[in-house]
Amino acid sequence: MDGILNILKPPGMTSFDVVSFLRRLTGERKIGHAGTLDPMAAGVLPVCTGRATKAVEFLMEKDKLYRAEVTLGITTDTQDTTGTVLTEKKPELSDPEIIEAVTSFRGKYVQIPPMYSAVRVNGKKLYELARQGIETERQAREVEIYSARVISISRKDRIRVLFDIHCSKGTYIRTLCADIGGALGCGGCMSFLLRLKAGPFHISESVTLEELSLRKDEGTLEDIIIGTDTVFSGLDSFMLDEASGKKFMNGMQIPFSKIREYKDGCMETGIDKVTNTYKDTFTDAHTNTDTDTDTDTDTDADAGIARTKDKDKDKDKDKDKDKEYGSLVRVYGNDGRFIALGLIIRKENGNYLKVRKFF
């Protein structure tokens, strides 16, 4: 079973518990999740199976969308309500003050990972040290908050703030809640967390563990398995003919003239699509007339391609004068099956497609 399941993780289970459940349900041993959710949290947990486990590293890089609640006036050793209370206050704060504190974290900011986390220090996970009563220095890391929006503020017993956060990979929402409380001078801890979106996977399309069990009994589990190429849906895609596909699968680099079809419905095929899309990067790929030896380096933001021109060709002899461009593409076989991520390169004798990772 190769593909991705968009799981709705329930609260009370660890992410590994979900993986263990799926292994028992499907009999597939090669299963991995793409982004840990705390036990108290619920929401989208992409789980990769079979060959799709190779996509985990790419899924981990995707942005996330959360709905979270911070309870103000309480700090704990875990930065959420499951931990031991360290301090307790009853702050008097206005709605504008709270909203300003939450939205002030938009943009890039530096977080220190919590002690109760899976981050490794000297080979040991922080939560293992924390359970032994050991606190160690953690390296701060930069994360980015793309948007922050307060949904509601409750004042029944404590001040509880519900808000949505769109953030980069590696953002600890528990730590963000603690930092919001710190900015308000009263402390705070996370009291609720729901992951709404992870990369291309949205909670509206997620499936429960109960539904998975039912589908297994009905024999319809395969119907909800998502193709691995969904992870790379924003990339251009190309199809190779049978002969080129076999060579590509054996690790050979394929000249653009052998790329038979642009898969996503473009009217142009093969090399025409490449030269039109990357016209600022490639000159005439058919005739290989590029003789530019400029020393400039610049970036085409629209195409997402860093293009580097040859500064000193003699220096690159040992590297076969390959020039790689940061743009990845999806590669499909003659049967329409997604087979690999490809990378565009330039060689002395023309422009080629090489494998980045097989699937």
Instruction: Assign the CATH class of the largest domain.
Output: Alpha Beta
Describe the sheet with the most strands: 9 strands, mixed
Tally of individual helices? 8
User: What is the fold-level CATH name, i.e. the topology of the largest domain?
Assistant: Pseudouridine synthase
N-to-C span: 13 Å
Integer average pLDDT: 81
DSSP helix fraction: 10-25%
What would you call the structural class? alpha+beta
CATH superfamily of the largest domain: Pseudouridine synthase
Q: How many β-strand stretches? A: 21
Report the principal-axis shape: elongated
Number of domains: 3
Strand content: 35-45%
C-alpha-based Rg, rounded? 25 Å
| H-E order | EHEEHEEEHEEEHEEHEEHEHEEHEEEEE
Q: Which segments are poorly predicted (pLDDT under 50) over 5 or more consecutive residues? A: 261-326
Report the CATH architecture of the largest domain: 2-Layer Sandwich
